[in-house]
Amino acid sequence: MGRSPAGARARVPASRAGHRPAAAATAGTEPSARTPQARAADAPADPPRAAARPEGPRRAARAGAPVPVALSHEVHGDGPGLVLLHGVGLDRRMWDRCLPALAARHRVTLVDLRGHGDSPPAAAGVSLAELAADVGALLSGPTHVVGFSLGALVAQRLGLDRPDLTASLTLVSSVADRSAEERAAVARRQELAAQDFGASARAAVDRWFSPAWREREPQLARQVLDTLLANDRACYLACYRVFGTADGELWPGLPRIAAPTVAVTGERDPGSTPAMSHRLAERIPGGRAVIVAGARHLLPLECPQELTDVILAHTGNAAGNPTGAPAGNPSGAATGTPTGQESHRS
Q1: Which residues are within 8 A (CB) of 309 and not within 5 positions of it... i.e. 6 or more apart?
Q2: DSSP assignment of 53-72
Q3: What is the pLDDT of residues 60-78, one digit of tens each?
Q4: Under CATH, to which class is 69-179+234-318 assigned?
């Protein structure tokens, strides 16, 4: 996925010894394991841009709580804390197009979730609570949590388990309360991933990219496909199982979320549908839904301006800005407005 023009990135690798090396993928081939030394040789030799947080979990696990692992992460900017969580099979690079605008207003932490990128592997049976505990261990106080797809489910779990750490929630392209038919479709996609991982990855890119977008940015579509193919298969399947089932686990508890919440999705997202975002807004007290006209699933890459406008308006409002207006927009009118389709719950 394309890198941000904002400059070099300060990276903090996972501190746990023996974390999985990511696999390399080339066009038309299946990935093969690569050594950490080979990965380091391929990495761009950019100078650090920002001081990163210390490695490892910042707080000890409470009695009976999941034991977190140390996530690979990087930090940019200054201001109120904001953490960005990616989707299943992707990594923190998916936020590159949103990062400059967000880092101009916030201290932004990007993470690779367990089982992804440079973070430790995810074992079979990993739970949503464990993924959320990993993120919580990085946070030192109330933080604006922005999650995409699987990351949005992690954000909801964090909002329930650690309300002291969640200043606000932005749920991007989130599933919610799937129907029996929708659950069956997700189960079929998981089965395809287990039987033919390459075909599963190509089908995902076909769902996410419209023909017109793919024609405009064929290299981006290829990069997203390569990222999917580079996943450790066992880790991917373990995390996909969480993605495929966790909305049912979360649904009964959503009315207990206290953080200001906005759910945003694409008008043409076939999996994380507008109806799901509206259901989240109705289920979570004070929730709002925003639907981005004409967009599919990958809002951080397809519509970064519209998405960052929603995020910054929401974090500004949660911090007490009476208009919720991004800097430079004192009128409070959103720039690059999505559709204006919103639902609210008091």
Answers
A1: 326, 334, 335, 336, 337
A2: PPSS-SSPPPTTSPPP-PPP
A3: 445 567 899 999 999 999 9
A4: alpha beta
